[in-house]
């Protein structure tokens, strides 16, 4: 079955950096578009980055463009999100999901990893 497991979250000061990982199994990762998304308390999920199966095409939400970098290693079945210049408004539960589109409706997602940015 599809399994996605995120790691790398934590508490960081404003302006700091974190690198998230998403380990995938149970499906052909190298043929799958993937999404990084986040959900802040009291809000719905929003996508942060979408990455093509080969990693050549990446789209970012305006709120993170220029600060976050998504990448993938298909040999390791792993998705990454490098987050720099973090802001308090980036505080959220970050998760990866199989496929692209509105993350509310993506059927396969991980449990998420918490990112908290202090001011």
Structural account:
This protein has 119 residues and is mostly beta strands. 0% of the residues lie in helices and 48% in strands. Strands 2-10-9-4-5-6 form a six-stranded mixed beta sheet, with no helix packed on it. A four-stranded antiparallel beta sheet has the order 1-3-8-7, with no helix packed on it.
Mean pLDDT metric: 97
Number of helices: 0
| Strand line-up across the major sheet | 2-10-9-4-5-6
Residue runs with pLDDT of under 50 for 5 or more positions = none
Cα distance, first to last residue?
Answer: 40 Å
**Secondary-structure element order, N to C:** EEEEEEEEEE
Bulk shape: globular
Biggest sheet overview: 6 strands, mixed
Oligomer: single chain
Helix content: under 10%
Radius of gyration: 13 Å
Brief characterization of the structure:
It contains no helices and 10 strands.
Which terms would index this structure?
single chain; 119 residues; mainly beta; six-stranded mixed β-sheet; four-stranded antiparallel β-sheet
Secondary structure: elements and pairs:
Blueprint: E1 3-7, E2 10-13, E3 18-25, E4 34-39, E5 46-51, E6 58-60, E7 68-73, E8 78-83, E9 92-98, E10 113-118
Parallel strand pairs: 2-10
Antiparallel strand pairs: 1-3, 3-8, 4-5, 4-9, 5-6, 7-8, 9-10
């Amino acid at each position: 079955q599809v399994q996605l497991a995120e790691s790398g979250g934590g508490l960081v000061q404003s302006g700091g950096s974190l690198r998230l990982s998403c380990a995938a199994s149970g499906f052909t990762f190298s043929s799958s578009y993937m999404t990084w998304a986040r959900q802040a308390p009291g809000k719905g999920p929003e996508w942060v980055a979408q990455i093509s199966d080969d990693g050549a095409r990446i789209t970012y939400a305006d709120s993170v463009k220029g600060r976050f970098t998504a990448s993938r290693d298909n040999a390791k079945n792993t998705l990454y999100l490098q987050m720099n210049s973090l802001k308090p408004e980036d505080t959220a539960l970050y998760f990866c999901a199989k496929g692209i589109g509105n993350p509310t409706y993506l059927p396969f997602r991980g449990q998420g990893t918490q990112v908290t940015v202090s001011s």
